[in-house]
Amino acid sequence: MKKLPNLFALLLGTAAAVTLIPSAQAQSCGRVTVANMNWQSAEVLAHIDKLILSRGYGCDVELVPGDTMPTLTAMMEKGRPDVAPEAWINAVRQPLDAAVQEGRLHYAARSLKDGGVEGWWIPKHVADAHPDIKTIDDALKHPELFPAPEAKDKGGVHNCPAGWNCQLTTGAAFKAWDAANKGFVLVNTGSAAGLDGSIAKANERKQGWLGYYWAPTSILGKYDMVKLDAGVSHDKASFEGCNTKVDCDQPVKTDWAKAEVFTVLTDRFKKTGSPAIGYLETRSWGNDTVNKLLAWMSDNQANGQDGARYFLKNNPDIWTAWVTPEVAAKVQTGL
């Protein structure tokens, strides 16, 4: 009879252990390295992930410096860092797809649900006043609406700064659409600040503006701009084979490719089974949201950490949909 209480104790202890094991596993996350990419939207997303992963899921998060090619190459070859929050994968699609098929890496959520966007834009006040202007061809019928800064009798197409790839693609598009014979000149903006400044000036003075830009960016969060329809689909072979080259003599009309932007995970982190994986497979936002956040950051000279806290404080309607109510409550504590 003396063995009976011990047997009950053993059974109860085993049951308690069985009950506790799933709970302990559910909270396991461990050390996680997250790439802090060197552009504004990726930087703030890395800090958002750090706050949510650490506070909401108990992860020990380390942000490590990153850039597209070095980070994804390191993940493919060395399995570190564990997470690339905003990977623009178009340039590395082939080796990255191979790594995913081999199980070394995994795609999680689309960081930007509407993708990275580039092309030619006009101010919304111009689009509203001239609803017939929908495409690049439409805009090029009206050089008088987009006066060049130093040639008032010509329309101007604002180009990217020297040395940027978009300087080549914009120049190629200018040739392909025969803009010179339609009364336009290419406008050298000199720098990123010069390009942004030309957009700001046109919007604040309610003037015309036509040129290349991309999203997500802070300037598109501050000013309402409308992307023109190219009127043609993306011709990958021609775009990559000529329109992106310095010596492209016969560029073709082609839309810019919509950049696919994913969160990428290593197999090691994926296999931890942490609930944090579910967050990274859900967390996705749109260009409008990012543009507005980047505009606030620029206006307030805020860094990625400042931007992350501002976003989490002011946009619970967006980010709480990425997590459970319990995780949201943990994250909101102390914000």
Structure description:
The chain is of the alpha+beta class. It is built from 16 helices and eleven strands. The termini are far apart. Mean pLDDT is 90; it is low at 1-27.
> Which class of secondary structure composition applies to the elements?
alpha+beta
Q: Helices and strands, in N-to-C order?
A: HEHEHEHEEHHEEHEHEHEHEHHHHHH
Estimate the helix proportion, in percent.
40-55%
> What gyration radius follows from the Cα positions, in whole Å?
25 Å
Number of helices: 16
Largest sheet: 3 strands, antiparallel
Euclidean distance between termini CA atoms: 58 Å
Strand content: 15-25%
Mean pLDDT: 90
Strand order of the largest sheet: 3-11-4
- Tell me the number of strands: 11
Blueprint of the fold:
Blueprint: H1 3-27, E1 31-37, H2 40-57, E2 60-66, H3 68-78, E3 83-88, H4 93-101, E4 105-110, E5 117-123, H5 124-129, H6 136-139, E6 147-148, E7 151-158, H7 165-176, E8 184-187, H8 192-204, E9 211-215, H9 218-222, E10 225-227, H10 236-243, E11 261-266, H11 267-270, H12 276-280, H13 287-299, H14 304-314, H15 316-319, H16 325-332
Parallel strand pairs: 1-2, 7-8
Antiparallel strand pairs: 3-11, 4-11, 5-9, 5-10, 6-7
Helix pairs in contact: 2-14, 2-16, 13-14
Summarize the structure.
By secondary structure, this protein is an alpha+beta fold. The chain contains 16 helices and 11 strands.
Core attributes:
alpha+beta; 16 helices; three-stranded antiparallel sheet; disordered N terminus; 335 residues; single chain
